[in-house]
Specification:
Blueprint: H1 3-22, E1 27-28, E2 31-32, E3 40-45, E4 51-54, E5 61-63, E6 70-72, E7 76-78, E8 84-94, E9 98-107, E10 113-122, E11 129-140, E12 147-150, E13 158-162, E14 165-170, E15 176-179, E16 184-196, E17 203-212, E18 217-228, H2 235-256
Length: 257
């Protein structure tokens, strides 16, 4: 196991413990938020020495729907990263479970920099189940020399994880999104629903790992769903659900872009 994974596991355990000891419960239409099962974001810029945790408490969330979706409202800079500016622009979850996030990352160095962004959600769910996910990766030139966001050797930009183990990936190595001078570029990818025999015993999560060109900005919107049962929806139902999800995603995209 890599030092990065060990550190992420330790930080997640610490965040979970803090929720148990100090978390509060917010009342919403769908019931109460379980303060021991809130998402936590871990950001690394350039390596484990520059690591920060972002973890809003239960009172920071508002209900997104009557079926248990909760959304953190607002935008927050993740401080303490001298080599980068990282902003969390969107964070949503449901203990079904699913987790969704939107990050804005700027590389403040004069050289390319590696970033690791992990969002984890405590959860338990017996297998089999169905999993799905998607990612939208954008890069914007901060100068006049173009910009790029690229995968690291042997690693995908997007990794859907169950209990810190990758169960699906998108934008697999080698992968690059490149923008022309003074321009921007965007690429999207999706998977599922597919049947997975992997039970969730502690958490689900999304790991985003990439290299960003100097002085430039990346925006990454991603989501990971795990649904109980190993049955894929009938085509008609699935198509209708996909259309509704796309419409909802479009409205959210316009809100946070």
């Amino acid at each position: 196991m890599s030092a990065t994974h060990i550190r992420i596991r330790s930080l997640c355990a610490l965040v979970a413990l803090s929720y148990i000891c100090f978390g509060s419960t917010a009342q919403v239409w769908a019931g109460s938020i379980d303060s021991t099962k809130l998402p936590a974001v871990i950001v690394q810029a350039g390596g484990s020495a520059n690591t920060q945790v972002f973890s809003p408490d239960a009172n920071s969330y508002t209900p997104g729907s009557a079926d248990g979706d909760f959304a953190w409202s607002g935008q927050a800079d993740v401080g303490g990263l001298p080599s980068a500016t990282v902003q969390v622009q969107q964070l949503e979850f449901n203990n079904d479970p699913f987790v969704l996030n939107n990050f804005l990352v700027t590389n403040n160095l004069g050289v390319p920099q590696v970033f690791t962004l992990f969002v984890g959600l405590p959860a338990t769910l017996a297998g089999p189940n169905t999993i799905s996910g998607n990612v939208r990766t954008s890069v914007i030139d901060g100068g006049t020399d173009g910009a790029s966001i690229s995968s690291l050797p042997g690693q995908a930009i997007y990794q859907a994880q169950v209990d810190f183990a990758t169960v699906a990936s998108l934008q697999n190595d080698p992968y690059i999104v490149a923008a022309a001078p003074n321009g921007s570029a965007t690429a999207s990818a999706t998977f599922g629903p597919i049947v997975s025999g992997t039970a969730v015993t502690s958490n689900i999560g999304i790991q985003l790992r990439f290299m960003l060109s100097p002085g430039d900005t990346a925006s990454i919107l991603s989501r990971f769903d795990v649904n109980p049962g190993g049955t894929i929806p009938e085509p008609t139902t699935f198509v209708l659900g996909s259309i509704m999800a796309a419409i909802a995603g479009g409205f959210r995209g316009r809100r946070v872009s």
